[in-house]
Amino acid sequence: MKADNDYYLGIDVGSVSTDLALLDSFGNLVDKVYLRTRGKPISILKEGLKILEDKWPGIKINGVGTTGSGRYLAAVVAGADVVKNEITAHAVAASRVNSDVKTVLEIGGQDSKIIIIRDGIAVDFAMNSVCAAGTGSFLDQQAARLEIPIEEFGKYALMAERPVRIAGRCSVFAESDMIHKQQTGHDLPEIIAGLCEAMVRNYLSNVAKGKEIKPPVLFQGGVAANIGIKMAFEKELKCPVYIPEHHDVMGAIGAGLLVREFILKKKGKTKFKGFAVASLDFATRAFECEGCPNHCEIVNIFQADELIARWGYKCTKWDMLNDNTG
Amino acid sequence: MKKITFPHMADMYVPVRAFFQELGFETVVPPAISKKTLDLGVKYSPEFACLPFKINLGNFIEALERGAEIIVMGGGCGPCRFGYYAEVQEAILRELGYSFEMFVIEPGLFSNYKRIRNVFGNIPFHRLLPAARMAWKKAAAIDEIYRLVLKMRACEKKPGQVNKIYDAFIGEIDNTVSVDKIRLIKKEYEEKIKDSKAEYKRGIEIRIAIVGEIYLVLEPFVNLEIERRLGELGVVVERELYITNWLLDFLNLSGERKLMERAAGKYLANFVGGHGQDSIGHAVIYAEKAFDGVIQLAPFTCMPEIISRSILPVVSREEGIPVLSLFFDEHSADTGIQTRLEAFVDLLERRKILQEGSFCESR
User: Fold this and answer.
1) Contacts of B329 in chain A (CB under 8 A)
2) Mutate to test the interface with A, among B346, B349, B350 (most CBs of A within 10 A)
3) Which of B33, B46, B101, B176 has the fewest CB atoms within 10 Å of its CB?
4) Both B25 and B78 in a single domain?
5) B114 and B233 co-located in one domain
6) CA–CA gap between residue B70 and residue B60 (Å, rounded)
7) In this predicted model, what pLDDT tens digit does every residue of A279-325 receive, in sequence order?
8) Domain ranges, residue B170
């Protein structure tokens, strides 16, 4: 057994939130940080690291895993050993919480996915491809429009006696339909409950279409905090839907578990740059390459004045040479 | 003599240009497909036409701007809308004010002898066979080397090495005017690619077969370079669709169709246009060959592939092979595709390790 001073860090940089999960040497969650990304992934990530450093001074990080749509950015900023897509990360975290899990419903800020798990491994998955109706951002917007704190939003749905039917196919039309229902005199709880049901219908007929949903079902991602959506899922699926205790940081937990697995197997030294990252200066500079009609938007990432990463190009012209910084 | 142009589809321009050059025609190869091509195509196309239509149209506009006078385009009469594309594209281009002649290759080419004469003038018939031979040899060499590229990207020594060798190969094949040299060039580059072999990037061999609509399968610009991405992820890629295979099939010289139809029979017994039935049949064949997964590629609104897409989940379940369907249009973004590919490959890898019983990670 290892010293208690060995930890793993999982980082999930998503469109809406940036989450950090600190795991002990056995892979148990010891602390988590959930921050709104607010379009500033680098500074929010630094803020998250600072919070952890202040709470856990002097701890040793054995490995860092990143996931989420900002996984590559987070990896070069913090120095990561494993960079994993959010589907694998969520599947791994779900299996850890419940080793029998067969279905994972995940609704985040701008994407929603379903993962089918059999015997502990993911066998099928799907992600929303053309539409973001029914994701966290849309709920956020509606909560703001109705002047209800997002945390309270789901509770309103529970007060409804008879949900009204809202057109949930498209977020713009859903909003018009909600306004219409308000104008015809329906109660707010009934409209919110109707919206929850519409979102679940939309999810099941688009994202989860043709997938074999078997219990146990886990519901994770930021939207799992919304009790109204959970109830609507249970009503449609006719089975209990479990929400893991740390549903909001499951991606980060998965990234942490994956890096732990990787480091234990490889017995390597971490690429983590240390909590000092929080006080380093990072800058991104983008420009448009005029070399061909593709006009690639190339982004350079600098740490202090040193170029540490570059992406956005199609051809080999901008390949970084002699890059050993990783 | 009038200058000829034609639409792009991967490296097809190499044999097509060689063919017309051997006959003594001048060709205007459209500039490599770029965002500008796409923008032009999207701007002047009906919104619900599929992505290949839009890229073709962009190619034609860019080629006409560079002085092309004859457009050679494919036709057909199957259930797929492609059969009408040339006519619609011609109407759009005329409305835009371009003057050109359009030659549509319809089935039953030789019955259209008069039409060929009207557009191209007198074709020196004694040069037809050597021209066809040159084009065929180039196409066959390209397909053979690319087949190797799809395998070897998964285990190259240096990242990107195989792509660079392939680019150099295409340049040389395109430049050569001697049929005899094609074989030598092919041999040389075959060695070079084989020399780049190292361990599999993932430490394990993962094999994915690609099926779907021919243009989306062949043209890297529209499928967001999916085969290169898979190679970078350390995946061996194979497919049945190649220019030469397609041509053999078109001329009824391929035995593959019978095998495909037999394999598809249980799920889809009819021709549904394009490569819709092929997608099903080949998915079954690759499952029998113990491939780890199948990826279906198609343009958004593609009727034949929509049919196969709704059947593939059944094939996946019955044949025990994971299938990922990806549909593309001008709004498709790399990040979404990359995430799905990474997740799919992870899924296949974990599945394979578990099946082979070498999974001993303790929880």
Assistant:
1) none
2) B346
3) B46
4) yes
5) no
6) 10
7) 888 988 888 888 888 888 888 888 888 888 888 887 777 776 544 33
8) 132-198
